[in-house]
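Q: Sequence in, structure out?
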Amino acid sequence: MKTFPEARRLIGRSRPASGRHHCFIAVVLGSLITPAAAGQTGNSQPAGKSAALVLFDGKSLGGWKPVDFHGAGVVKIENGAIVMLAGRSMTGITSTHKDLPKMNYELSYEAMRLSGQDFFAAATFPVGSSFITLVNGGWGGNVTGFSSLDGIDASENDTGQFVKYQDKTWYRFRVRVTSDVIRSWIDDKELVAADIQGRRISTRIEMRRNQPLGFATWETSGAVRNISIRPLTAAEVAVNNKLNQQDQ
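A: Exactly. Output:
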């Protein structure tokens, strides 16, 4: 058993969350949960859910390619995971899979920080015709949130959270993307639900090489595994679009 990482709301926002631009932040302190199961592939199909497409087989980089970031570190397969060694400044991978969903889907993956003090598996993914990044442990190792909303990074927008990550510990991430809301979880505990209606969705310039779907580190060594994606059912889409409801 392990304790969910401590999270608290960022203070000193660049702008308050209000109107349709608000977020409902779910912060969990001191909850005990079961670590993500090793070797999970995402092939299971619980009742009422669609089948997932496994994007990494645990053995090769089939379906992925290293990103040619300047000064990128080595990308390799080790112990059933894609390991991205620290670069100067970024190391990353991008999916070469075709016809991945752009809307009404769930992306899930496990990630671990091996060493370093910044993001260890920032995930960039599509939101319709745009893209956004879930940064994990950016800006010195603690900030987790979506970059960018209305041109504002997670360190300053209303999705930013302080999350304390432990080295060499696997964390299970999930993201659901629908037309009204982007929602994320860590180890099945909801982190943030962001109302994106009428908001400008984008990534930072350096993350564009991770599009359409990819992961990156910043002067940090990280690993990812058990990467899968699945379309959401109509019922899941309806629930996700309601900020005051959750569907695990």
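The radius of gyration is 17 Å.
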